[in-house]
Amino acid sequence: MIRPFAALGLASLCLAAPALASSDDAWAEFAAKVETKCLAAAADMLEKPVIAVDPFGTASYGVAILSGKPRGAEGSVSYLCVMDKKTETAEIGSELGADTLTVNIPAK
Question: Among 44, 34, 49, 17, which residue's Cα sits nearest to residue 81?
Fold first, then answer.
């Protein structure tokens, strides 16, 4: 009777292994990819943008906030960026002015 439980326990451990395989290096690589994709997607919108990346994102998306001076205008604006984890395509949301959202992202 113990053997079926042992086999079930071993199978459970094998299924959990992929979740344990996410290392700090893999998450850092993921965050760097989100940063690169989001900065590229916002290149025409912001001059010298700063970005804050959620280090893990959601189950389906990498998430970041970009902030800075809008191209050809004064002031400060922010954008939300999402990157689809499967396709690695980044999309930028609509402009959020300082009256809607104030973001202070420390320089790296």
Answer: 34
